[in-house]
Amino acid sequence: MKLLTFIGIALLAGVISGLAYGTMNLLVVEPFIDQAIEIEIQNQINEGDQVDMQEITQYRIWQKGGQLVAGAILGISFASLYAIVYGYSRKSLPGSSDARKSLFLASIVWLTIFMIPFIKYPGNPPVVGDPETIYYREALYIAFIAVSGLGALGFAFLYRKLSSIRAKKFIIPALYAAYITAFYFAMPSNPDAITIPMELVTNFRIMTVITAAIFWAVLGITFGILWDKFKLHVGLRKTME
Fold first, then answer.
1. Half-sphere exposure (CA, 13 Å, Cβ side) for 49?
2. Helix, strand, or coil here: 1?
3. Structural element, H or E, at residue 239
4. Helix H segments across 25-133?
5. What whole-number distance in Å separates Cα of residue 141 and Cα of residue 120?
6. Are the C-beta atoms of residues 207 and 33 closer than 8 Å to each other?
7. In terms of Cα–Cα distance, which of 146, 15, 150, 148 is closest to 80?
């Protein structure tokens, strides 16, 4: 029964955080995407290209309409992995309650698999960039996420092994910082130039960071509260800790 409850709260926390993420995207990110698309359309018109406005409008309606569903699916996917990580790492996390422990872990995950890769390869509106380099750019971004996330996981295991070293709270973060800095400078930069107003791109990036932070905060707090409510650590201690 505890295992079913564990799965249930992971799914519920994922849906709640995903819906929050989808809603925030609709409210604060999509307007900047609309502006970028308008600029791209105007550029195509100025170059004499034919633009099917009806097709673009219908596509954007469909795209915006699926934000909540896409957010919920994304939330469930991340929450499923997050729940497993939390179950195994709970005893090592700081905090007097599961809500605080979970929020701390969610902050670490947000930092390592979103914020640090975002600093190296900041997001742009969809119309920015050469379509011919899209797979290359995606490969670079995914590779940096893997480098950062797997590196953080490896150093987390090392942290648990060094139980007798008091300075590990400073040593491990310093080692991770050196590790990720080396990869930051070793990996190539984004090859595409930005061809729309930088103010628009900057605002888009700020809102993207905010919505991602909200997603992980909601996931961490919701999951922690549900974990504490159902006392999952009692029933799952032998299998996960």
1. 10
2. coil
3. helix 232-240
4. 30-46, 53-65, 67-89, 98-110, 116-120
5. 8
6. no
7. 15
User: Of 226, 208, 199, 213, which Cα lies nearest the Cα of 36?
Assistant: 199
Residues 113-130: b if buried by 16+ CB within 10 A, e if exposed: bbbbbbebbbbbbebbbe
Short-list 126, 12, 123, 5, CA closest to 72 = 12
Within 10 Å of residue 58's Cβ, how many Cβ atoms?
Answer: 11
pLDDT in tens, 63-119: 888 999 999 999 999 999 999 999 989 988 999 899 999 999 999 999 999 999 999
pLDDT digits (tens, 9 = 90+) for 39-74: 988 887 887 778 788 888 888 888 888 999 999 999
Name residue, tokens 């919505």.
211
Cα(3)–Cα(216) distance, rounded to whole angstroms? 23
Contact between 225 and 24 (Cβ < 8 Å): no
Among 3, 196, 182, CA closest to 87: 3
CA distance 46 to 149: 44
Tokens coding 100: 């605080």
